[in-house]
Specification:
Layout: E1 5-10, H1 17-27, H2 38-47, E2 52-57, H3 59-66, H4 68-83, E3 87-92
Parallel strand pairs: 1-2, 2-3
């Protein structure tokens, strides 16, 4: 079985929608054609091959910066987790 890829996302680096999608693209090594919106994120996460664990650090900070959009971003990742058996989304409680 392939090693699980671990990707750490930091809520403190997602201070705007643009910065959030830049951070996601960089950390998740998303392709150049990534549309930098929640639908595109969902599509790429559900199509992602191989076991991947996404660890969200400072999710509360992400929500405080982005409000409802931050909640939707987190929900999009959780929805992708449910749709893709090779994807696991966790929250880092050791801040």
């Amino acid at each position: 079985m392939a090693d699980r890829e671990i990707v750490v996302l930091d809520g403190e680096k997602m201070i705007s929608r643009r910065e959030a999608h830049n951070h996601l693209a960089e950390q998740l090594a998303l392709p150049e054609y990534y549309g930098r919106n929640l639908d595109a994120l969902y599509d790429l996460l559900t199509e992602r091959a191989g076991p991947t664990r996404i660890v969200i650090r400072r999710g509360d900070t992400l929500v405080s910066w982005l409000g409802d959009y931050g909640k939707s971003l987190i929900q999009t990742m959780l929805d992708a987790d449910r749709a893709n058996p090779g994807l696991e989304v966790l929250f880092d409680k050791d801040e």
